[in-house]
Amino acid sequence: MSSQKLLGAVNSLGLNSLLELFKTSRFWFNLISAYGTYKVIYYLFLDPLRRIPGLWWSRFTDLPFRIRRFRGTQVQYTHQLHKRFGSVVRVGPHSVSVNKACDIKRILASYKFSKSKVYDNAILDAEEIFSTRKEQFNRLRRRQVGPAFSTTGLDSVEDIILDVGSRALKKKIETGIEKGNGSYTINYFDNFQSLTADIIGELAFGRPFGALESEKPSIIRLVNSTIVISVLDAFMPPVKYIPFLFKNYKSDKKQIIDFSNSCIEARRKAIENNEFSKDRIDILQMYLDAHDLDGSPIKKKELIAEIVLMLIAGTDTTSVTMTWLLHFYLMYPEVYKKVVAEIDQAFSEKSTVIRYKEARQNLPYFQATVYECMRMKPAVGGFLPRDSSSDGIQLSDHYIPPNSELLVFIDGAHNDESVWTSPKKYIPERFMGENGKELAKNLVAFSSGVRICAGRK
Ligand code: HEM
């Protein structure tokens, strides 16, 4: 068809006049008014979340809420919203925050309210226990790794944990004090982070990373880079495809994959050469022995994703909690004195190494201080996003329709005044005795229900 004929056809369709129309301001004014009218009608009469209280903008956008996340003020901000609007607050066109402990426990109890789609962006491009939204897959992985976190499993590695963890840190501090003629400066957070990484290194990678011994442990950098690049990949997908963007983070992520690979091969070789003790039940071994749904061994890519995930899930959470606990002891010397007195009374021999089971049995006040620390400073203090399922859910104050996002607000649950008296105060005594045991059931620092933290023991 010649270009003249084509132009003729366009003219006959009236497209020219349509183009003219697009150029007029009246057209755009009418279009915007029509859209605005539709939106007003929608939000007033049709929007499924229209009865959920919240600030006006939450009907249209969640941008102000997201901005606060990047500013680091989202938790305080959401507390204010709940104070003003109640236990269920709308924070975006499809999202509500929930802060009542009983509602939260119902949401988390079953697989019905699955993790929402923000979890889809897996950390290492392979499905793993944490980010999967599939019930069957999650059940399978939890069953496979479960023995490593059972009492028998943990007993089998307790000496390794003590060697790589508390004994190594004690030695480091003693050497430091000796070298400094009685004076030594220590950054507790950095050291707790290294200690936790070394322990998870032993259990999930089959070897410690030597982080505690090092001044600037590379494993910590690799973990941090992997987290950063995974978040960037999730929120800015082009980053993945443009090689020169965030090159260093990408190279660190590759290093952690290569390192994981070498650890897996080293363990396989040790088994082949009968150099690996069958009594040792650890995370790496559980996954190496496990089979996928089709009966084949877990693929290397998935295995790497699982062990790196353990490192990411366990390192900062545990070390941040340990740091807060120490901070509370420094802020409340009377609490610290009580902890020391309890230990002295239960274990009069100073050189005794206190084991996990003994601590559980004999140190109730110490445990109470840990619970109260985790209540006030949960390491995952923000939100656990869940889907409201195809049926929706009736919470204590509101019905949430299907296709909504339920933001389980952990810090909110830990400050719920219908459960906790004076929630802003550090009072470990609240967890003592039979009532204290009951109260502890309202803690959700490790989440709750079917997706509760696999490493909580
Ligand atoms: C004080 C320390 C810890 C805290 C506060 C903590 C907290 C949590 C929370 C809140 C979740 C749920 C996350 C969600 O639903 O999005 C979770 C899940 C998980 N955590 Fe932990 N965690 C801790 C330590 C650990 C350790 C040491 C490990 C392993 C070495 C670990 C492994 C996991 C895994 C595998 C999951 C996913 C469980 C699933 O989805 O089925 N965590 N943790």
UniProtKB/TrEMBL annotation:
<keyword id="KW-0479">Metal-binding</keyword>
<dbReference type="GO" id="GO:0005506">
    <property type="term" value="F:iron ion binding"/>
</dbReference>
<dbReference type="InterPro" id="IPR050121">
    <property type="entry name" value="Cytochrome_P450_monoxygenase"/>
</dbReference>
<feature type="binding site" description="axial binding residue">
    <location>
        <position position="453"/>
    </location>
    <ligand>
        <name>heme</name>
    </ligand>
</feature>
<dbReference type="InterPro" id="IPR002401">
    <property type="entry name" value="Cyt_P450_E_grp-I"/>
</dbReference>
<keyword id="KW-0560">Oxidoreductase</keyword>
<keyword id="KW-0408">Iron</keyword>
<keyword id="KW-0349">Heme</keyword>
<dbReference type="GO" id="GO:0016705">
    <property type="term" value="F:oxidoreductase activity, acting on paired donors, with incorporation or reduction of molecular oxygen"/>
</dbReference>
<dbReference type="GO" id="GO:0044550">
    <property type="term" value="P:secondary metabolite biosynthetic process"/>
</dbReference>
<dbReference type="InterPro" id="IPR001128">
    <property type="entry name" value="Cyt_P450"/>
</dbReference>
<dbReference type="InterPro" id="IPR036396">
    <property type="entry name" value="Cyt_P450_sf"/>
</dbReference>
<dbReference type="GO" id="GO:0020037">
    <property type="term" value="F:heme binding"/>
</dbReference>
<dbReference type="Pfam" id="PF00067">
    <property type="entry name" value="p450"/>
</dbReference>
<protein>
    <recommendedName>
        <fullName>Cytochrome P450</fullName>
    </recommendedName>
</protein>
<dbReference type="GO" id="GO:0004497">
    <property type="term" value="F:monooxygenase activity"/>
</dbReference>
